[in-house]
Design goal:
2 copies of one chain form a homodimer.
Chain A: H1 4-10, E1 12-16, H2 18-26, E2 30-35, H3 37-42, H4 44-52, E3 56-59, H5 62-68, E4 77-82, E5 98-103, H6 108-120, E6 125-129, H7 138-144, E7 153-156, H8 159-168, E8 172-176, E9 182-183, E10 193-197, H9 206-211, E11 214-217, H10 229-247
Helix pairs in contact in A: 6-7, 6-10
Pfam families (chains A, B): MRM3-like_sub_bind (PF22435), SpoU_methylase (PF00588)
Protein name (chains A, B): RNA methyltransferase
Keywords (chains A, B): Methyltransferase, Transferase
């Protein structure tokens, strides 16, 4: 179930470790829980929560936990979960103010970290568009540190449709682009926005750059060539989140 | 030369790849350059720059490049460089406005990413304090994407001495701390500041928390438990850098 075709066929994925399992249970997305004796003793609250939700809890050996795990040091607790993505239609609730769109983001660790930052910044939704990685990938799940289960997620192959949905929801489309003329700190950032982040190596495609309302550059005050994707997303999403709250009186 | 005792004995470290080698040459920190035929053809400017600095350039085979490299896809260009750290004394020039202090940061990839963000945000210096990783570690060099060669760096075992030096330079000490009462967006951020970031797993030590002028929390607007080190550093350093420039009229 850890490979993509199996995941999609089964409609399930694995969330591993206490943080992810806890988030899965809060979201009521867990369907089955596997725990070692050691993990059951370390996290009795998670076992209880699963049983209260009527979820089957199965004891497994350390060796079986190693087999299920993708990490070097398995925590011995793994939940089988429903896939989290939902249709684009209806994803953006009225009044949405902050959305993160990942366009062709390839690395699952990067995608997970951006989902975590988007969640922290209070994003109303995250859209994985174009050729972006499957967010249910084990590395993405881990990098998100539970945040995969928080903001509503959609996966949309057609990036133009994703951007159009954001625009229709009243969001201004800002593309994070290292070579843009407009700098982040010269922008009014207190308005509802969909931030669009591109591929790690190639950035935003020409089509996406044409579709956004504005391409925006994070100013580089020192000698660095650029920021990496996750830190750039952190700066953009928090700049918007903080500006929006400042102008609304906190 | 890739292991720490060897590095310290030799007073040299390896910078691998065109970006890092270019940054090393700009800083005049390279002492010897090794290139494959393929890399010499791809980066003639780097070879010329090295020769103009009177640095010995040696042709190596692809196999030798693999042996020197720590990466899966070696770029075939490696510079032997002088260690970059300097004494704490004299590190902070008068008028320094932004310094990043890494206290017990263990992971070299994290350290390199924070150095890159600090450079981008225009930091006047970076201090690796306490048990922090050696910044000349190959993974740190790579994660810094050349930025290791930009801001002045010091390595200081005695964290208290590092903080004292920042204070003596007129910097306000702000500790990034997930459980602090004071929120980032309630702070005046336009003043000269040394941001202190702690260990990935344990955060700032009680001693550091007592020494800083203020512990500051990045507000979590959504359901995420926390941010990771690099994205938290990005938010704090850019919040200060942008506020400082706003109040100084850009």
């Amino acid at each position: 179930m850890t490979r993509r075709p199996e995941r999609e066929k089964a409609g399930r994925f694995l969330a591993e470790g206490a943080n992810a399992v806890g988030a899965a249970l809060e979201r009521e997305a867990a369907r089955e829980l596997f725990v070692t004796e050691r993990a059951a003793q370390a996290h009795p609250g998670l076992v209880t929560a699963a049983l209260e939700q009527g979820i089957r809890v199965s004891a497994i050996t350390e060796r079986a936990a190693d087999g299920l795990s993708e990490t070097v040091t398995p925590q011995g607790i793994v939940a089988v979960c429903d896939l989290l993505d939902r249709p684009l239609e209806g994803l953006l609730a009225p009044g949405a103010r902050l959305v993160a769109v990942l366009a062709d983001v390839a690395d699952p660790g990067n995608a997970g970290t951006v989902i975590r930052v988007a969640d922290a910044a209070g994003a109303d939704a995250v859209i994985l568009a174009g050729d972006s990685v499957d967010p249910h990938n084990g590395k993405c799940v881990r990098a998100s540190a539970g945040s995969l289960f928080h903001p509503p997620l959609a996966r949309v192959r057609d990036t133009a449709a994703a951007l159009e949905a954001c625009r229709a929801a009243g969001l201004r489309l800002l593309g994070a682009h290292g070579y843009a003329e407009t700098e982040l700190d010269s922008m009014p950032l207190d308005r509802p926005v969909a931030w669009v982040f591109g591929n790690e190596a190639h950035g935003l495609s020409p089509e996406v750059l044409e579709s956004v309302d504005e391409a925006v550059r994070i100013p580089i005050y020192g000698a660095a060539e650029s920021l990496n994707l996750a830190t750039a997303a952190a700066v953009c999403l928090y700049a918007s989140a903080m500006a929006s709250r400042r102008s609304n009186g906190g």
